[in-house]
């Protein structure tokens, strides 16, 4: 009996290299922005991409002094207490009775000045306050174009580096919500 198997030197290595190259093309950073959300503005792609990462578990607090820091660039699954238990809740716009739901406070540490997006999976009310100031920051842009990525709404704010901020979530129908704060025009690495 003779061995009639034919060997092609380098064939297996070339096949493995081609498979790896194809895998790298399939899983680029823009995969979410281009495949799930065709036509998505380039400025919102970082939000859609960061949203796809795993969510960290965090519990919003009833007072800003005890509130945990929300990492910029990392989606968080935020547990919210009942709004009636949040004594420090600042309502910039009067809300109708019966819409209180759940609410909570988180702190933000911003190292680099720039535009930042706050994305949420629901229509939770989102406001950012600079620590020590009672008026919320102005929203520079509102977008609902990320529903393709599972994000219900995105609000953009101009935040200054070196300042402390409080993110207030209110009027949530549920006791939890996924939230992400993502740098849009600043080169901010996820905070520690």
Q: How would you characterize this protein structure?
A:
There is one protein chain. The protein has a single domain (33-92, 99-183), classed as Jelly Rolls. Helix content is 15%, strand content 29%. The protein is built from three helices and nine strands. The protein has helices spanning 11-26, 31-36, 45-51, and strands at residues 56-59, 76-79, 102-109, 114-120, 125-130, 141-143, 153-159, 164-172, 176-183. It has a six-stranded mixed beta sheet with strand order 1-2-9-4-7-6, covered by helices on one side. Strands 3-8-5 form a three-stranded antiparallel beta sheet, with no helix packed on it. 32% of the residues are buried.
């Amino acid at each position: 009996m003779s061995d009639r198997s034919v060997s092609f030197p380098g064939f297996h290595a070339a096949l493995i290299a081609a498979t790896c190259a194809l895998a790298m093309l399939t899983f680029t950073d823009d995969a979410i922005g281009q495949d799930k959300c065709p036509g998505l503005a380039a400025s919102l792609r970082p939000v859609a991409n960061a949203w796809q990462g795993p969510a960290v578990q965090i519990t919003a607090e009833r007072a800003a002094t005890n509130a945990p820091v929300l990492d910029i660039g990392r989606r968080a699954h935020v547990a919210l207490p009942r709004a009636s238990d949040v004594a420090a809740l600042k309502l910039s716009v009067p809300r109708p009775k019966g819409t209180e739901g759940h609410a909570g406070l988180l702190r933000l540490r911003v190292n680099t000045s720039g535009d930042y997006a706050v994305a949420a999976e629901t229509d939770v009310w989102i406001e950012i306050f600079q620590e020590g100031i009672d008026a919320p920051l102005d929203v520079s842009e509102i977008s609902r174009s990320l529903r393709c990525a599972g994000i219900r709404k995105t609000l953009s704010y101009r935040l200054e580096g070196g300042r402390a901020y409080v993110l207030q979530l209110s009027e949530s129908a549920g006791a939890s919500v996924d939230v992400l704060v993502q740098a849009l025009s600043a080169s901010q690495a996820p905070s520690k």
